[in-house]
Automatic annotation (TrEMBL):
Highest taxon in the source lineage: Bacteria
Keyword Membrane on entry: yes
Keywords: Membrane, Transmembrane, Transmembrane helix
Record-given protein name: DUF3301 domain-containing protein
Entry's transmembrane regions: 6-23
Organism the protein comes from: Kineobactrum salinum
């Protein structure tokens, strides 16, 4: 059985797409873990236990190599009542930043 060049390219393209998809799922899991750690450190609660892809682009890392830059949006709360939006930024599989606003000061 012989394969044409077009069939080989199609199979390789599909394989590359599958690898990219699985890597994207891994980066998303790393983003959720980073937000959960930041929540423990900064005393906020990650709502819905998930992040949502907000922006996607290419950017260079500190070594000058091209990586996929992703910005995820998530919902969080300091008091369990008010919902706020935050962002987590990933460059490749590395965490760049978790962005949340400061909690409102409590007046007694």
């Amino acid at each position: 059985m012989y394969f044409t060049l077009g069939e080989i390219v199609a199979v390789l393209g599909f394989g590359a797409l599958c690898v990219w998809f699985l890597a994207s799922i891994r980066v998303r899991e790393l983003a959720v873990q980073a937000v959960a750690r930041a929540g423990e450190r900064d005393d906020f609660q990650l709502l819905d236990q998930t992040v949502h892809l907000n922006r996607l682009s290419l950017s260079r890392d500190e070594r000058g190599r091209w990586r996929v830059w992703r910005q995820y949006r998530f919902d969080y709360s300091f008091d369990g009542v008010q919902r706020h939006q935050g962002f987590v930024i990933m460059l490749g599989q590395r965490l760049q930043a978790v962005v949340v606003r400061e909690p409102d000061p409590t007046l007694h």
